[in-house]
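Figure S4 source data
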Amino acid sequence: MVSAATVRTVLGDVPGDALGVCDAHDHLFIRSARLPGQELADVASAREELRAFHALGGRTVVQWTPYGLGRAAGELAGLSRATGVHLVAATGLHQAEHYAPGAVEAVLDGLAELFVEELTHGIGGTGPRAGLIKVAGGFHGLDAHARRTMAAAAEAHHRTGAPIAVHLELGTGALDVLDLLCGEHGVAPRSVILGHLNRFPDPAVHREAAAAGAFLAFDGPSRANHATDWRLPDALAALVDAGYAGQLLLGGDTTTAQARSVNGGPGMPYLLRRLRPRLELAVGADVVRRMLTTNPAGALTVAWRAG
């Protein structure tokens, strides 16, 4: 059975035009073996971050935290109600190094079933339903773990219609991901969101990925090891000039407590407080509005299948 085309939020399915201004890639909660002691785990802090985002006009946040990394799925519905911000949760699996040894071995043989269950019935059986599948590539390549998780994501996509969001390590490997998901596994490019392209500002790769039909996410202020913020306006302007304005997404990708605005970092508000006006100077307010509203609605709206 196929349902009407909607976005699957933690409070239920809503039409795409209900999303408003969207942070298309961020995290309210995440715990990674690669970031010991930097967990996002505090509910009160997450609530304040959402309220700060809402105060600037933000109305939707897409949490890309997948299975096994402290999603706090049971907290998401309450946070959405308390702040007035739509939340979209993720299923999926990250790179192996983000998990403690032995943490995911039990689910590897049934990944597609796990993803479908969380998309159609709920995270953990009783939590909200996920609205997208998050997987990850490696640095300039795809290892066996990435190929396994992406094959499972493709199967779950075909069974449910869910979009697939891809962490590109330092922004690399976009074309390899499209070859695998779309070429080998038959996923429509428009169902794929390629993340972190701001971290690898190669205009030829950006344009080829856009020409294939995928959504391109430029998410998060620069970190010390990929200081590319200054290139972002030009990268987006080039894609807009080439006719790809309808495939561009913006996000914040807050992954540590120190990065939250309530703790003195840029956090979710940075997207609207600082990045939006910079990009409006480069491509115009109407195009930026499209990146924040129409485009994420298009990327996330699905004619859901029962699985």
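Figure S5 source data
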Amino acid sequence: MRAGFILSEVWSGLRKNVSMVLSVVLVTFVSLLFVGAAILLQMQVGQMKDYWYDRVQVSIFLCPPDSEATTCVEGEATDTQKKNIEDQLNSSELAPYVDEVYFEDKAEAFDHFQDQFKGTSLEGTVPEDEMNESFRVKLKDAEKYEIIKESFSSTQGVEEVVDQNQLLDRLFGVLNIATVIAVAIAGIMLLCAMLLIATTIRLSAFSRRRETGIMRLVGASNTFIQLPFLLEGVIASAIGATLSAGTLGLLVHFGVSGWLQGQATGFSLISGVNVLIVTPILIAIGVIMAGASSLITLNKYTKV
């Protein structure tokens, strides 16, 4: 009997305040859409780091004949200098960091250059004898690339140490900034949602003050009086959270897993599985937000 009465009160409240309920649903939907996007973006950053950091290399470019670098005063890198660099890479000091070392001669460098710029204006612009020989170093921990750079940047016979991680750090930095912006927008929208939920509950409680007064007279507890109002906010917020999760699922399915994955075939992107992981988080945030906002309001306006 009590459960039936509470459910009838909840339905009555939702029906009488349709416009306000829709407002709560929409603002919750938008705010949690940003929250979900921020979480998914960080998941994508994590996947990209795992993929790229496992494949990037540090390139130690040796001196060509006409280099003006201070470490190339003797001209092109000599066999002795190459041997010293190789021995240092294989030394016990760098063993904890270096996973694999590969030497690329001029012929291989020229072939890679031609393949990379095939069909462009740069193809064939650099002759083979002007290509840099290099040591390509794969690290055990790609984020420790600074150790290699510091070890060889002033070594005789080395013109330049280039680490691909610097480019990746810039990319991930931009993605992290985008995440912060999404979180900031989500925070503002969540605050708006909480204020709107509080207003909705207050108006609902005011419109039913006569029923509430009768319930007080017959000895109803605070919990019994407040529960229908609390459920109204929670239900509206849960609907908004579910809609945001569904929208994210469609965007990921058609936009990321569908179109974008076809363009970026080299590595995996987030998928519907990631959205399934995020969905309960969004619903939990929506329910907790609505519950907290409703309780604060109800304690003020419906307390016996």
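The chain has a mean pLDDT of 78. The chain is about 65% helix and 10% strand.
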